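New to this. Explain these tokens.
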Amino acid sequence: MALKLPLVRWGAGSTPVLLLHGFLGSHRSWEHLRPNWGADLSATAVDLPGHAQAPLPSTTGTDGFLETIAALASVIDTP
């Protein structure tokens, strides 16, 4: 089963941006910027694995890292 990361999207601008939070954060870490960036960007903010509502990868080490990268890639590829 593929790792699914919870996310929020906003804006309809022509510049796509993937927002990644820091340690102990979540997609909500970016909410304060939303009013400033709303119209200029097409933003996607995700919860990284193990944070907020995001599950952990099904495995650890390199395989878990690659599973996380694949989940982020699917977020980028899905409008």
The chain has a mean pLDDT of 90. The two ends are 21 Å apart (CA to CA). The helical segments are 34-37, 61-77. The CA atoms of residues 19 and 51 lie 14 Å apart.
